[in-house]
Fold this sequence. Notes:
By secondary structure, the chain is of the alpha/beta class.
Amino acid sequence: MPRQDPKVRARNFNEVALGYTHEMALKEANRCIQCPKRPCIDGCPVNVDIPEFIKAVRDNDMPESVRIMKGKNALPGICGRVCPQETQCEQVCTLAKKGAPIAIGRLERYVADWEREHSSDLASSPNLPPTGKKVAIIGSGPAGLTCAADLAKLGHQVTIFEALHVAGGVLMYGIPEFRLPKAIVQGEVDYIKSLGVEIKLDSVMGKLATVDELLEGGYEAVFLGTGAGLPMFLDIPGENFNGVYSANEFLSRVNLMKAYLFPEYDTPIKIGRKVAVVGGGNVAMDSARCALRLGADEVYIVYRRSRVEMPARHEEVENAEEEGIIFKFLTNPKQFIGNDQAWVTAVECYEMELGEPDASGRRRPIVKEGSEFVIDVDVAVVALGTTPNPLVPSTTRGLETRRNGTVVADEETGKTVKDGVWAGGDVVTGSATVISAMGAGKCAAASIDAHLKET
């Protein structure tokens, strides 16, 4: 897929990947052999009929391709950009046994972008007749939006309660514009609204109302899709110095509050000349690449294992390297160093070596004694992962949670131990992928629908 030149894109927030042309999409669609076993469908968490939507592209029947895709996936423009297809549908593609799999994600993006440009020409499928049943969904991230779409199509009256001033959850605050344009997200949100879903913004549930109050106030089911917005920290000296951000705050300022457009948007952010980002996942890549675009001269990824163990998508690591991000593998912070004004000036690090595998299956990093060294920085971003915000669970009677704050829910149905309450996405799993959250939302919607039919 065509991309912006690395030297150009490293200084702008425009989308990096430029999308397929019509000719490219047709050429890729024609590679699909329409195999009878169709393992790609099983590899998709929302079970999109992948061969059929690709066949429609090949046949130049784009309205049919849109219809097939939207039958299972309410957010194709998002999935086509940020879903890790390489470890899901594409990994099990029959062609992957001997060569390159079909570029399913890129074709999905092509179809979604075509739909956005031609939406006025397309007839939408009607919802089932109204059931009179009311469902409350807390959180408008990928899990909540997917659950809402499926329930609305089934005829239920759905209201989403979103704490922030815009809908989209992590899609808005966590993923940068250059990877997922916010106009794409809001287009998908508008589609959810077109199904009849009501979205109430600035609604901090647990404060505005509790889950129990929703159930007592006329809602017959509640779905918790509140995500995992509570940052984890290193717990080392100097972490409270000015200029040390959690990735949540850093990315929220940049993406949601549009600090990269300051002063047009009134959200300041510290522009570091030398920036260190601690972590090796997609959030770390996003933070580092944002810092570069904000004007940094040098940006380091500090990761305690080797490149092989990095959890970030290969594509995102490759993009970061092309843009000039400096990777410090087998490196772990010991402490942050600051000046008299309490601003961070450096991070002291250990060199690490890998030992035996730990519970994650990755080789455990071990400190090399006497290996300390210093990296001069004026901004640092800690991107170690997140856990769920405790507000909703702590105000919900009878809801079971784990030690890390995640909600206990059935893996197949999303049902919690509390009657009338379902949960899915990062609030159950901890930080995971957009598509896995969507899959959880879809499973919960089916379970909620079955429950409502019985009541």
